[in-house]
Write a structure and sequence with these properties.
The chain is mainly α and about 475 residues long. About 50% of the residues lie in helices and about 10% in strands. It contains 19 helices and twelve strands. The strands form five sheets. It has a three-stranded parallel beta sheet with strand order 1-2-3. The protein has a three-stranded antiparallel beta sheet with strand order 4-5-8. The longest helix has 22 residues.
């Protein structure tokens, strides 16, 4: 029986959760959730000068908004430093690592001489096989003994087999002269101790895999399954940058993209399941596999993101969508909905959610339900409320006072009234939109009247007629 799948996301808290990191987290989450495994979270905060609590909080909030829940407690890499050092000393005791007393000046001089002579600049320490009796009383680093011949093969589920000649691997430093562990050691020890079975990360880490495998093999530990995923590029094929939209995950929440739409879009960035573009979380979890990840960089496309977001808004459960709207308003630091507005919005969603790509668009379409009297029409709506139109609205109001407040009944009354005026309902719709919403573009007049109810509808029409 195979071991349970354990994946992890291990960001450095030096900034926000960017889109590339969010996709990496999503791929790890999908792979684990689809196999009944665990998805773990580790904050790689060993760089104390650049790591900040604010960045850690931003990462946690970004993951929370995306709905990527992790198992167990968040692991701090910095807190595990004594364990990392313990492994380095264990390798030293086993003769698989050694103390190197070379100074930085000596290493620099070696490389400059090698460069001048056209030799390989890979540093070869003279202390690798030195007898301990020759060790000076001086600062030293601990280096691993890299294999010096043969090859290392990285068996990668995305990139295929990647072969690296071992004579291109240096004796990597494990512990610095101040006793602190290097990142390469910390990552391997943490992944092993956390039981990580699959390392799914950006292909900019591919070269690290060969060096990290040295530690796994020296310790006699199982090497995890590697899956190095291509990076994300902008529409122009160049590395994704802020000008392309490489913003923090939470900035997309502030712009009003629904989390489900963002998950769907990020999943399709570099991974595919046939020709499927739109899918639910349940489908993504069932379908996601490493074999579906391509080797070429994915291209970020805002139009596709908007399209998928709109589809997810359209099929969202109303209660869940309303909660997402509440979270959006808080994230964007916009006024929260009042109880009255929330109640009206709940009645409105059915007629606005199929026509909005992002939440601000949805709220604009629902403006008629969120605004209180007196309605202040915008410029285009004002143009529809001339003296003739206001007079017509005044004549219409009595016809609605005893109407049965259903769509069929309202449609019969309004079309009949338009006929008595020798026109079509389309000519009446403009003034009605202006009176009910203060906008020229709105949901259907009938939907607005049903949402607002008889009393509010009549009050708005009366206000407009008297203006």
């Amino acid at each position: 029986m195979s071991a349970p799948v354990v994946t992890r996301f291990a960001p450095s808290p030096t900034g926000y959760l960017h889109i590339g990191g969010a996709r990496t987290a999503l791929f790890n989450w999908l792979y684990a959730r689809g196999r009944g495994g665990k998805f773990l979270l580790r904050i790689e905060d060993t760089d104390r000068a650049r790591s900040t609590p604010e960045a850690t909080q931003a990462i946690l909030q970004g993951l929370s908004w995306l709905g990527l829940d992790h198992d167990g407690e968040v692991v701090s890499q910095f807190d595990n430093a004594p364990r990392h050092a313990e492994v380095a000393h264990q390798l030293l005791a086993q003769g698989k690592a050694y103390k190197c007393f070379a100074t930085q000046e000596e290493i620099t001089a070696f490389r400059e001489a090698a460069r001048a002579e056209g030799r390989n600049t890979l540093y070869r320490s003279p202390w690798r096989e030195a007898d301990e009796s020759a060790h000076p009383d001086a600062p030293y680093v601990i280096r691993i003994k890299a294999p010096q011949d043969g090859v290392t093969v990285i068996r990668d589920r995305v990139q295929g087999d990647v072969t690296i000649a071992n004579d291109q691997l240096d004796d990597m430093v494990l512990l610095r002269s101040d006793g602190t562990p290097v990142y390469m050691l910390a990552v391997v020890v943490d992944d092993h101790d956390m039981g990580v079975t699959h390392v799914i990360r950006g292909d900019d880490h591919l070269n690290n895999a060969a060096r990290q495998m040295m530690i796994y093999q020296a310790m006699g530990w199982d090497v995890p399954v590697w899956a190095h995923i291509p990076l994300i590029h902008g529409p122009d094929g160049k590395k994704l940058s802020k000008r392309h939209g490489a913003l923090g995950a939470q900035e997309y929440q502030v712009m009003g993209y629904p989390a489900a739409g963002m998950r769907n879009y990020l999943a399709r960035l570099g991974w595919s399941h046939g020709d499927d573009e739109f899918f639910t979380d349940e489908q993504a979890i069932a379908w996601f596999d490493l074999d579906g990840i391509g080797r070429s960089p994915a291209r970020f496309d805002v139009k596709k993101l908007e399209n998928l977001s709109g589809q997810h808004i359209a099929v969202s459960d109303d209660a869940a969508l309303q909660q997402e709207i509440v979270a959006f308003l808080a994230a964007a630091r916009l006024p929260a909905l009042t109880r009255h507005q929330s109640e009206r919005l709940a009645r409105t969603l059915y007629c606005v959610k199929e026509r909005a790509k992002i939440i601000p668009e949805l709220l604009e379409k629902a403006h008629f339900a969120l605004v209180d009297r007196p309605i202040a029409p915008d410029e285009k709506a004002s143009a529809a409320l001339d003296s003739v139109s206001r007079g017509i609205l005044g004549e219409l109001t009595p016809h609605l006072q005893s109407a049965s407040w259903t769509k069929d009944s309202l449609e019969t009354i309004l079309t009949g009234f338009a006929e008595t005026k020798g026109t079509k309902f389309g000519k009446l719709a403009g003034p009605l939109r202006a009176a009910l919403a203060g906008r020229a573009v709105t949901p259907s007049v009938y939907d607005m009247m049903l949402v607002l109810g008889r009393d509010e509808t009549l009050a708005r029409l009366t206000d407009a007629a008297a203006a």
